[in-house]
Every structure is written in C-alpha cells, then in structure tokens.
C-alpha cells in the first residue's frame, strides 16, 4: 500500500524557485516520473524511444532533441540490473551534449554502494567503478552534472566521484518521520539500528527518538544478532537501515527485539532491493507475529510493482523530494 497523504508536504516547492525542468526517464521509472511531474507545474515530462536492434543492443532515440537546447534537463534513472545500465548510460552521456543549460541525473538507488571496499588483494570495489563511470558524464554549457542519490550505503563514497559531477546526497528519512507522526502510538516509538553502520548513517536524523542498537557477534561459524544498547520494552520499535537484500538481518533483529519486550516491531529501508522475491518472507500470514509495518520508498521500481499492496508493506514515495531536488 502506498502512503501519499503528506508526501506533497515533504516535496513543497519553496518560493522563488522558478526553474522549468524537462524530465526524461527510463521505462521502469515511468510511474515515479509521473508522480514527480504531478507535484510541480515547473516539471515537464519528455520521452525517449527505447528500442533494440535484432542483436539485442539498444536502438535509442531522444524525442524533440532540438527543443531541449538551452533548457534545464534531468534524467530519472534506475540501474536495477547490469542489463539496463548500458542503454541508460547511452542516453545520460548524450543529453548534456544537446546544448542544454544544465543536466541533473537522479539515481535514487546507487546499486553497487555496498561493494565499496577491498578486504583482500583481488577484490574489486565496484562502487568506485560506478562512481568513475558517472563522473565522466560530459559537462554541459552550464557546468558539471548534478547527481542526486538517496541514502548511499557508505558515507565515504561521496569522495569516489570526480570533479565533473556534483553529487547531492539526499535521504528518505523525512518521509519516515512524517509517517511515524501519523501512527496512533507515535509517542511510544523507539528507533532501532541493526548495526553500527546504520547508526552512523542515520542517528543524527532521528536523534529525538529513543534508540536501540543491535550488533552481530561471531559464534563459531555463525554471526548472531545481539542487543548492544537501549531498551525496547513495551515500545513500537522501528528498525531503520538504508537497504535490504535477503532480509535475514532484519528478521533476526526483530526476534531479538521481541525477546527483549518490544510490543511490536516495524522496519524502514530506503531501498527495497529484495532479489529473488525475498520480500515474500515478510508478507503477513493470518497468525503471523512478524512486522507491523514495513516501509520502503519507490527507489527500486521493480520491487514496488512486485509487492503491490501486500501487507505489511507501505511505499513512501520519493516524488516530492525529487521535485524539490530538481529545483536546486
């Protein structure tokens, strides 16, 4: 289920921002692009013909290319798999060359963000590779490309980008805070972080909530989730992290929190990646005492489409925040 009751408040345009933006988008971001454009008369959607030659390689055409000269142009991307990255990069590299006034790339989910370091010789830090690719987007007449990313996995990744792009790191946390205020038990919310990394990323944005921190400890060949600090007893505990893959850590955290007296447990992640339909392990059964709510954003469109209205999931749309970012 998608919660849109107050998304427009988060994405309100500030007085004085009067930049007309032409917004292109990849096919899987069409629904999100429509929502962004609906929030602002200053944003006009543009189209691209996404086709393939017989050999499978892209056959692309940017409609109305002459009309975008001298205009502020943006592209809404989703690098959901290696298969779609090349065709989108082909467009992304071409748009700044069409004599546009400025170019903004909105990439809500930076997909290789969790592969940001080498632990032994031979490891390939693909987060750095992706940052280098995006850093080589051509400069427009107005200067470097603005690159909008939400809740990047590791804070140091901002330094992976070169001088040809200006990274703007946004967060979905305001959407979560707005949703929590609507809950009947809003005065009993405790925020839990599944590890120290999540605490480092988000604790300053959520410092007015009581907090709980979990940690993973190694016991033999297993890594066990333990409660490190804080008291979840008799509270509605909301686990907060940047992304979820299989969801195993969240499930183990939920068990630990319930064992320490949590009245109920919910979860929020900005990026619901959920490969191999792993979101299904969270869907509510009749006798299930799992998650009360599981909030995600629409940064991963394939996931949003697959989940539909399945409880306990709710989608908090980034549309308003993106509309704001395009006016910076």
Short note summarizing the structure:
By secondary structure, the chain is α/β, with parallel strands linked by helices. It contains 9 helices and 16 strands.
Termini distance?
A: 30 Å
Uncertain segments are none
What does the main sheet amount to? 8 strands, mixed
Structural shape = globular
Structural class, from helix and strand content? alpha/beta
Please give the number of β-strands: 16
Count of alpha/pi helices: 9
Into which percentage range does the β-strand content fall? 25-35%
SSE arrangement, N to C:
EHEHEEEEHEHEEHEHEEEHEEHEH
Mean pLDDT: 91
Task: Indicate the radius of gyration in whole angstroms.
Answer: 21 Å
Outline the structure in words.
The protein is of the alpha/beta class and 328 residues long. The protein is built from nine helices and 16 strands. It has helices at residues 7-10, 30-38, 82-94, 126-135, 173-181, 196-202, 248-259, 301-307, 319-325; strands spanning 2-3, 21-25, 43-45, 48-52, 58-62, 72-76, 102-106, 145-150, 165-170, 189-193, 211-219, 222-229, 236-244, 264-272, 294-297, 313-316. An eight-stranded mixed beta sheet has the order 1-16-15-14-13-10-11-12, with helices on both faces. It has a six-stranded parallel beta sheet with strand order 3-2-6-7-8-9, covered by helices on one side. A two-stranded antiparallel sheet has the order 4-5. Helix 2 links the parallel strand 2 and strand 3. Helix 2 crosses helix 9 (319-325). It is globular and about 65 Å long. The mean pLDDT is 91.
